[in-house]
Batch of 2 targets.
Target 1
Amino acid sequence: MTNTGLVLTILFSLAACGFISCEQERDPCLLPRTVNLRVRCLRIVGDTAAVDSPLVNVNLGALDVDSLKFLYVGADDLARFSLRLDAGADSCRYLLQVDSAISPIDTLTFYYARRLQYLSSGCGYIYFFTLDSVRTSSNNLDSARVVNREVTTDANTNPLEHVQIYF
Amino acid sequence: MCRSIFSFAAILVFLSFGARAQGEDTSRINGTTTVKPDGRQLRFGIDISRPLMQAIFKDRYAYEVMADYSLPKDIYSVLEGGFGGSDIDYPDLRYKSSNFFLKAGIDKSMLQRLYPEDWDFLFVGVRYGVAFINRGAASFSTDDLVWGTTAGTIPAKSLTAHWAELTGGLRVELFPRMFAGYTVRARFLINAKQFRELPPAYIAGYGKGEKNTVFDFNFYLQYALRWK
């Protein structure tokens, strides 16, 4: 092989290698980062049965933040909804007012353990949660039940919801 | 990890076929025109691509040197080493890491020697690499639309990376005893499990810490010592 040929080969190869090696400084985040707690609303029918109960004119807001932060205001046909748990504490509270024109306000309190989760250099860290319990006031609500303890980015859990609330 | 080992094994098989084919060619040539080297060669090199990459990628640095020694049958034993690190400063994640590394392996020339002083070579080879890494404490934050920002720190950690490499490349003697050339590399992390939790952004000698397979290249300037 002649030197000229080899040098040309080197230059072409280097250009190709440059394409292989040069990557973006920070990889894009291609993983889901949103960790939602999913709630299903049910109405007790008889002694043992419950059916889906879409709520109307719903106000839902987070308590214990700098100011009351509403997630839903006057929302209709709300059979399921999503909440965010506070990664800075082991519990958090939400107020829930169903049919806000006439009904009183209830409070939902979630107790949980936090777990730091590394996703990737592009996504950084997020928190996963393991639900311990949920307590409610009983102005309009009957009760609440944890049906799925692990609150992660998995959107295909069985059942879909983490908590069921009964009216 | 299994996939990495499988890939490495598959390419090793490929290389072994290549080496055997070369052997057959050599034995055929032995009967007619075998060209032997004019002596032994010990060659030292420095990778000049790393400082250039450092100018492009401000968050990492690396310095790499190598030496190879000619053995019979156009095989070269190779020793490589260096150090480097990275400094990640994203809005939600900040940490530093540094490491030094060593690699050992062999290169096999695939070019037929034209004359005894012909030390140009096109090669394939294999390496085993190990890096000793210090990842500093990391600070992170998570943002939530409802609850705001939560921040924390992850303790510092010492890690050891082991990997295998397949290499290929060229060396050209541009001036007497002065060589230039490149090595392209496919690297396969052996102990990937250890690097799932906040891996170093960049491991000098290997590449991105969170990838199990890395493709890379080096561009060397080398000087050769020769004796009979």
Target 2
Amino acid sequence: MLYREAGQFKTSYDKDQQIFPIRQDRIAMIAVLLAVFVVIPLLTTAFPAAGQYWLSGILIPFLIFSLAALGLNILTGYAGQLSLGTAAFMAVGAFAAYNFVLRVPGIPLLVAFVLAGVCAAGVGILFGLPSLRIKGFYLAVATLAAQFFVVWALVRFPWFSNYSSSGVITAQRMVILGYEFDTPLEKYLLTLSIVGALALAAKNLVRSSIGRAWMAVRDMDVAAEVIGIRLMHTKLLAFAVSSFYCGVAGALYAYAYLGTVEPEAFTLDLSFRILFMIIIGGVGSILGSFLGAGFIVLLPILLNIGVHSINGVLQAAFAWSLPAGLTSNLELMVFGGLIVFFLIVEPHGLARLWQIGKEKLRLWPFPH
Amino acid sequence: MLHRTKFVSTLAALAVAAFAGAASAQEQFVPLLSYRAGAFAAGGSGIFGGYIDYMNYINMKEGGVNGVKLVWEECETEYNNSRGVECYERLKRRGGGASLVQPLSTGITYSLIDRVAVDKVPMVTLGYGRTDAADGRVFPWVFPMITTYWSQADAMIKFIAKKEGGDDKLKGKKIVHLYHDSAYGKEPIAVLQEYAKKLGYELSLIAVPSPGNEQSAQWQQIRQIKPDYVILWGWGVMNPTALKAAQRSGFPREKMIGVWWAGSEEDVIPAGAAAKGYTAAGFNVAGDKLPLVQDIKKVVYAKGKGNMEDDTRVGSVYHVRGIVHGIITVEAIRKAQERFGKGKVMTSEQVRWGLENLDLSEARLKQLNAAGMMPPIKMSCADHEGSGLVRFQTWDGNQWKVVSDWITPDKKMLRGMIEESAAKYAKEKGITPRDCSKES
């Protein structure tokens, strides 16, 4: 009833082509933006203790992983090129941003982030070259090489970490136009703005001719070539854009989140986590990247808190609690079980669930 | 109906208990960023088990620190940096604020260094973490106590030199540093190279990618080098793998010297007979005959409150190391209470003062029943390491046997390196070092 587009007429092509053609969606989007840009900052200032935890423990990593998942989704979900090198591209971004700020005096931070993204894009193109010849799982193995090579190179050449004895880099302070971003709230707003702008750009990119070319290549590359899409150009562009996003995510990971990073923070494990994010969130969906990141980042935390509170209740009621080792492993078991459950119930991810929900809502409360 | 009222009253009691817990002022909160799942669960469960056992012991035996009960909450990090940061953020304001945090992971330590300075929560890293944080002028909130990786590397070279019969005997010898390829494994390289220059031995660096369960290529290389000694700087599964690989390539285990994270029962028992004769460092000794371990068994385990699921691990290297974590936590709080009021809950800033002024002399350790179990510690504003002593133990196939006295590293040389590195960090971060003569 509420979610109906009846009576909304479009009188121009522009109106028909906007991102959210339905009025209710636009209202919802404005509400979300208001919530994240205004309500959350107000709430976290009102409750500083809890607010700090939410910002620096949950929201900032969630946004950064969303951005990395978005990057991988462009490559895997839209252009159909499977990649296991996401963490490596993030590492390139983090170390490039560090080196730009360190070695180019007075470079604006945002410029350093963009250049870090460009560096990652360059590395992405390099490791994307095999995609012209090999596909699917074989390509995944080729990108795996990126994963190992990049981490190896960052460890092996101390120049990258400015000859630090342990190979760890410490992100410099974040100063933009003389203003220092050092509180969690400021870091959150900076991360949110960057992620928001890049998500908007990605959404428009995939609706443009470039995005359509990616999808054509994904669906059948021979057919795409026949209708005049240049395969090399399209695939490498997908690698470049995807790695750019991952690179910026890596720079944010170092600057806005951890502060100090070692190359080993960007392991294959992280690449897999991001791959799981897009599989669970929805392959080939911008929204899915956010949903998937939310699922993978937040669920273990929720489970941890949940198991702890169950333990607290047991402790108070029966003066007995689960052994600590079991509590920790229980979390992993439930997490694994939930992933399997989700993939069986909805193999196309959370984004598809959302879409089904929207279709149902359109008819509601009538059966058809 | 009866059931329901019972349920409701239980719930009400719970709510009251929860509020009472929050309101009670006589509790000192300790956050535990523990890991009992994942690849490093063996180390995590032992150390956090010992840590909790000691806090329970103090609560049960003395009713807390001068009557202030210790309370804690665990948060599973899986040894993962971002999980660790989340746990820290979650627990730092619990129950009146965290007293101090011991992350037990070099990676998490690095991620928290900036945060603890902002939040004013002291971070204690016993035998891991960032070495140059020993310069307390630049890192007022970080305490790499007892010993750092640089002291460890130094002590290893001293130990090897002693075995060979003097510093000059190392000339022309070949030493392989077989290390876990991470910040942890690379930390000692600077010191080993410095000594290579000074003493004239030939140092080869061989990295093992994490987690280290595949080392055939590395041991191939070692066979070609034919070293006189192999320094094993591993963690978790890498250690038994290395010992087995050494046996296969015929390298004598007597010539392998491990770091203190490669010197627990969990590292040698899986390697079976291959581990016999292997020597590793430690800043605590082990054994369930230690008087303190005996007392903990009597006070805590006899009442069924012990934290270790496997009783045979009580008194193991990691369990005793956990007890050392507990002793330092409790003694820092006690020291702070001496100055800021006995029987009061200390804030994190007061605990920091307690850590900085901690003096665990031989006599004090004796009072604590821990003489010989850990080295004496004397902290100061400038020196956040406080000891630097390590001891070597050899695995005889059944247990660890202490084979050396406490070895003192070359403090002067290390201090110079620490100050140089800390000054570089201070410059990068724009920190002005504290003037220690003005601290009280």
